[in-house]
Amino acid sequence: MAYPTGNIMAGKRGLVMGVANDKSIAWGIAEQLAAQGAELAFTYQGEALEKRMRPLAESVGSNIILECDVTNDEAMDKTFAELEAKWGKIDFLVHAIAFSDKNELKGSFVENTSRDNFLKSMDVSVYSWVAVAKRASKLMTDGGSMITLSYLGAERTIPSYNVMGVAKAALEASTRYIARDLGPSGIRVNAISAGPMRTLALAGIKGGRDLVGTGREWSLLKEDTTMEGIAGCALWLLSDLGASTTAEVVHVDAGFHAVGVPESAASAE
């Protein structure tokens, strides 16, 4: 995918967490940041993800690829200690980490949500954002910017999104509180609410692929959410162009979030 090149991020270093493969939103963001001159470090969890991610990281000139288990405080401490030893400080953070048992992302939220999966989903998808922000902020000695990835299911019910919608709502609330606490240190904290994309995350939701077509049909722009659009928004928020913007949830979904009743339904009356 061709991204605009330049030097908007020249001299800036940052950590990208959550790249699963070359279709990941996190990867699209990383490519755009690299095209604008950023130096990138990456984390992974598990050997399988490392094998997929390492060649991607190397393709954008990164040689800092660290293992990180966000459910383990000691593991996170080690990861950020290693990053500090290599770079000393960072300027930005991309958090693109979420998890839920796909067997519970279908049908009834009330009937299908177990206590164990509810707690794990919140731990991985939400608390990791808090825990990572805490550690990353210590390395942003000259200020910086952080973003996480959300979805409209945080605000409205989405078929089969279930506990992930609850987790994303908590993620967005956490973004505001993190922004409050880190603002005095010159650190901006925002979330991008991306429209449905053909990613591994979407594949894990029953009927998830249908959301792409619905998003295109009902959106104000009558088009798919593009990786270029999401990556461009991330570039704005993570660069100096995003000055004075914090605690925001920015929708990048071709205007789908603003639709109450689609035109097709209204014209059928």
Describe the structure.
Helix 1 (25-35) packs across helix 9. 45% of the residues lie in helices and 14% in strands. Helix 6 links the parallel strand 5 (144-150) and strand 6 (187-194). The chain is globular and about 55 Å long. It has a seven-stranded parallel beta sheet with strand order 3-2-1-4-5-6-7, sandwiched between helices. The protein has a single domain, classed as 3-Layer(aba) Sandwich (Rossmann fold). It is built from ten helices and seven strands.
Topology:
Blueprint: E1 13-17, H1 25-35, E2 39-44, H2 47-59, E3 65-67, H3 73-87, E4 92-95, H4 109-112, H5 115-139, E5 144-150, H6 163-182, E6 187-194, H7 200-203, H8 208-218, H9 227-238, E7 249-252, H10 263-267
Parallel strand pairs: 1-2, 1-4, 2-3, 4-5, 5-6, 6-7
Sum this structure up briefly.
The chain is an alpha/beta fold and 269 residues long. It contains ten helices and seven strands.
End-to-end separation: 42 Å
Total count of strands? 7
Shape: globular
For the sheet with most strands, the description reads: 7 strands, parallel
**CATH C-level name:** Alpha Beta
Portion in helices: 40-55%
Poorly predicted parts = none
Do you know the CATH architecture? 3-Layer(aba) Sandwich
Report the β-strand fraction as a percent range: 5-15%
* CATH domain fold name: Rossmann fold
Count of helical segments? 10
Structural class: alpha/beta
Radius of gyration: 18 Å
Going by CATH, the homologous superfamily would be NAD(P)-binding Rossmann-like Domain
How many separate domains make up the residues? 1
Order of strands, main sheet, comes to: 3-2-1-4-5-6-7
* H/E element order: EHEHEHEHHEHEHHHEH
Mean pLDDT: 93
